Amino acid sequence: MMKISQRALSLTTSPIRRLGPYAVEAEKAGKKIYHLNIGQPDIETPPQFMEAIRSFNKKTVAYGPSQGDMHLIHQIQKYYKEWGMEYSEKNIFITSGGSEALELAALTLCDPGDEILVFEPFYANYNSFAKIAGAHVRAVPTSAETGYRLPDQETVEKYITNKTRLILLTNPGNPTGVVYNKKEMDMIAAVVKKHGLALIADEVYREFVYDGAYTSFGTYDDLADNLIIVDSVSKRYSACGARIGCLLCKNDDFTTQINKFCQARLCVPTVEQVGAAALYDTPKSYLEAVNQEYKKRRDTIAAGLAAIPGVISSDPKGAFYVMVKLPVDDAEKFAIWLLKDFDENGETVMIAPGNGFYAEPGKGVDEARLAYVLNCDDLKKAIHLLGEGLKAYPGRKI
Amino acid sequence: MMKISQRALSLTTSPIRRLGPYAVEAEKAGKKIYHLNIGQPDIETPPQFMEAIRSFNKKTVAYGPSQGDMHLIHQIQKYYKEWGMEYSEKNIFITSGGSEALELAALTLCDPGDEILVFEPFYANYNSFAKIAGAHVRAVPTSAETGYRLPDQETVEKYITNKTRLILLTNPGNPTGVVYNKKEMDMIAAVVKKHGLALIADEVYREFVYDGAYTSFGTYDDLADNLIIVDSVSKRYSACGARIGCLLCKNDDFTTQINKFCQARLCVPTVEQVGAAALYDTPKSYLEAVNQEYKKRRDTIAAGLAAIPGVISSDPKGAFYVMVKLPVDDAEKFAIWLLKDFDENGETVMIAPGNGFYAEPGKGVDEARLAYVLNCDDLKKAIHLLGEGLKAYPGRKI
User: Fold this and answer.
1) Which of A176, B136, B212, B343 makes the best surface tag, with the fewest CB within 10 Å?
2) Which value, to the nearest 10 degrees, does the dihedral of the CA atoms of residues A321, A324, A330, A331 take?
3) What region holds the Aminotransferase class I/classII large domain (chains A, B) (predicted)?
4) Which residues in chain A are contacts of B17 at CB distance < 8 A?
5) Is the CB of B5 less than 8 angstroms away from the CB of A133?
C-alpha cells in the first residue's frame, strides 16, 4: 500500500467548494440555489477572447516559452504602464491563473518551517500554497467588529519571527472586500523594508474598487526589490476558466529562480494565452461598466445585510465579497442546513463558511463569505432567503 | 532584501531549454539550426482540436470542476477501455499537462527527506518535481553499453531504503527510447508490491512504439492499489501547447488526497479541455500514420548514428528520443560549440546535453539526448551535421 504524505493529509478541502455535494443533492431534489459561495462572476467574457482564439491558425499547437507568450507579456506591460507602473519584459511571468503565481512564489521564497505572515481572514487557498511549500501561515487577526481593518505597526511586528519570509495579502481583499488606505499600505511597506521581507500583493481585484481611487503596491518605488505582484485576467475580464495569470517582480534574484520552476512545468496553455492577450484590447468602457454594475450590487447587498438583525458585516469597498458575522452557532452547519433543510417556495441560498478563511481551526466559526456575483434582483432574493433562513435556523444564537 | 529558498537554489535549469540563448545568438548570426534538443513534434495537431474550440459558445469562460471537465473524463475513460483498462469517473483527474500530474503525485506521496526511485538516465524534470516535494531522487544506473536496459530485481532492491515511497518511470522511455519488456515490467511490479511502494508510470508515449505491441502497467490487475498512470494529449495528438494531461489511479486513499491539491489550483483551462476532448474523436488512422512516420524517422536516425564512428546509442524502440554516448570530453561544451563555433554551409544542429538526465553532477557528461521530431530529410542533414561536428570538435576524445 502506498503511503500518503503528511503534507497532503494536512491540506483542507476548499470552504468554497466542499459543500458542493450538498448543493448537488438539493438541486436533485428540485431546489433552486442562489450561489453566494463562489467568486464566479455571471458577467460575460469580452468577445475579443473567443474572436482571437477562433483566428488562431497555427497548424501545430506547440509548446510556448516557459516565461509566457511575448505578445501577452507586452499587453500586460502596456496595461501596467497605464496604471503608472513600469515593468520590463523580463519582470513578467505568465502563470496558470493567479493560483500558480502564488504557489511558485511561495516555493521560491519558503523552505519547510518558514513563516508567511497574513491578515486574517484571508483567501482560503493561501493555506494550501503555504503547505505545499512546507511553510506555516502566521495570521495577524482582524475582526468583524473593527471592519477587518489592519492593526498598527507595533501589533503587526509582534507576529514577525526570524522565520518570517514574506507578507502575503489581497488588496482589494478576499474575503473581506476591504481596500487598504494609505496609512495601512505605508505601514505594510515599512514593515517589509524594516524586516527584509518579500511582499506578495495579490491585486487581481484592482479594477473592482467602488469608492475612490486605488493604489497598487507597484507604485511604491522603494519596494521594487521586495515586491511580487500577482495578477490575473480571471476576475478583471470574467475569464476565470482561461486560467491565465501573471507574476511581476523587479528583483532579478527572484526572477532568476522562479524561471526554473516555470521551466519545470514547460509552459502555460498556448491557445488561452492568445485569448488573454486580446482581452487587454477590450475598451476601457467594458471595465467601467462592470465596475458600475458591481457597485450597484455592493450597494444592494450592503443594504440587504444591514436590514438583517444580528448580522455584522465588513465594509465592502472593493472586490466582490463581503465577510459577515452571523448570529448562529456554526456557519458551516448553517450553510449545510440552508441546502438540506431550508427553502422558501423551493428556493435557498449557498454561502461559504468563514472558518476556511482562517489559519487555525476554531476561528471564524460564526462567519461566512458572500460573493455578490449575481444581478441585483437575484441578490435581493438571495439576501432575503439568508434573512429568512436565519430566522428559522434552530442553531440561532440571539 | 528577500531571501530565496534552498529548494529554489537547488533546482537546475532544463538541459532541454537552457542552451536556448546560444541558439538565439546563432540564429541572429544567420545560422540555420536543426533542433534535436526538444521533443516538440512538427506533426500537425488534428483539426478536431481547433474545430471544437471554435464552436465553444458559452458567454462566460467560467471555472470548471477541479477534477476536470466531465466530457473530457468520459473521452479518456473510453480511450482506456479500448486499451483494455477500466477506469471509473472518480479515478481520472485532468491536469495541466503530464507535468502537473507528476508534481501533484509527488506532493501527495512524498514528505521532505523521502526518496523517489528512478532509472537513470530519466526525464530531466523529474528532478524538479522531486525537489518541489522535498524528496530525493535515488537513481538506479543503466548504461549506454547495455542499451539502458534495467538490471535484475536484486540490484534494484539495493537502492530501496525505508524512505523510498515510489518508483517513477517513463515507458516508452524519455530520454532513452527504451520500451520495457515483460521481464522488466514483472520485476518492477514485484518490487512495488513487495516493498509497498507507489508506482508512477508516465505513459505519455504509449502510442509511439515501433516494434511489436505495447503493454501498459494499467493492465497489471494486482497493481491497482499501487499504480498511478500519468498521461497527456501533448505527444499523442501533437498538442503540447494545450497543456492537458491526466492522472489515473484506482486507490481511493490517493485520489481523496490529490483532489485537495486540485481544489487549491481551482481548475485547468476550460477552452483547451474542450479541444482536448475532441482530440479523442480523432480517427485511429491519424495515430497509425503518425506512428508510421516516426518509425521511418527512428530507422533514419538509427542508421545515421550507426554510421558515425565512436557513437554508442540506445536501441530506440519507442517515444521519439535516442540517448547517445559521444566521443567528446563534455557533451554540454560540444553542444555549445555546435551552436557558437561550428557550421557547414551556414547550418548546424542542436542537441540536449545528457548530464541533465541524471540525478547527480558528473554523470552522463559525454551523453546527449536526440529528439527525432524532424522529417527524414531534415533528420539526415541533422545527423550528417552531428557527424561533421564530431570530426571537427577540438574536444574529441578518440
Assistant:
1) B212
2) -30
3) 32-341
4) 66, 263
5) yes
Chain A residue nearest residue B50, CA to CA: A54
Mean pLDDT value across residues B179-192: 98
CB pair distance less than 8 Å for B241 and A61 = yes
Q: What's the grid cell of residue B23? A: 541558439
Give the pLDDT band of residue A232 (cuts 50, 70, 90): very high
- Using CB atoms, which residue from A8, A53, A129 is nearest to B53? A53
Which set of grid coordinates corresponds to residue B49?
482540436
C-alpha cell at B248: 489515473
**Domain locations in chain A as residue ranges:** 6-44+285-392, 48-279
CATH architecture of B6-44+285-392: Alpha-Beta Complex (3.90)
DSSP H or E run through B170: strand B164-170
Model confidence pLDDT, tens digit, residues B232-261: 999 999 999 999 999 999 999 999 999 999
Strand, coil or helix: A141: strand
Is-contact B107 B265, C-beta < 8 A? no
Among A8, A108, A226, beta carbon nearest to B260:
A8
Instruction: Kindly state the cell numbers that stand for A40.
Output: 464566479
Give the residue from A199, A255, A256 showing the smallest Cα distance to A228.
Answer: A199
pLDDT for residue B2: 87
Q: Return the bridge partners of A230, or none.
A: A202, A247
Hey, what amino acid is at A257?
Q
Query: CA–CA separation, A205 vs A35, rounded Å?
Result: 20
Q: Which residues of A touch B240 (CB under 8 A)?
A: 61-63, 266
| Fold of the domain spanning B48-279 | Aspartate Aminotransferase; domain 2 (3.40.640)
Question: In this predicted complex, what is the ipTM?
Answer: 0.95
On whether the CB atoms of residues B297 and B177 are closer than 8 A, the answer is no
Given a cut of 90, is residue A361 above it in pLDDT? Answer: no
Q: What pLDDT is stored for residue B361 in this prediction?
A: 85
- Contacts of residue A74, defined as CB under 8 A and 6 or more positions apart, other chains included, come to A89
**β-bridge pairing B136-141 and B164-170:** unpaired
Which among A3, A128, A132 has CB closest to B165?
A: A3
